[in-house]
Amino acid sequence: MSTLLSRLIVPFVSVSAFAQAATSEAPTERASSTVVVVFVLLFVGMCVGIVWMSVQSGRKEKLAQQAAEKAAQAGPV
User: How many CB atoms lie within 10 A of CB 44?
Assistant: First the structure.
């Protein structure tokens, strides 16, 4: 691990010597508010969907476990 890190340091140092300085230019384009709203709606919808699927999965597992316990308690038929 130490040899890998020591070998990676040299290229990083040499590449940083050729890096250009950051400029404080204004962004050339701005995102429209419609694009931002659509992105936020899709992101929130995806998060809600993931939470909903995980809750439903938990419920299915809980119901299957309860059914298995009832079958075990009933004994042989």
Answer: 10
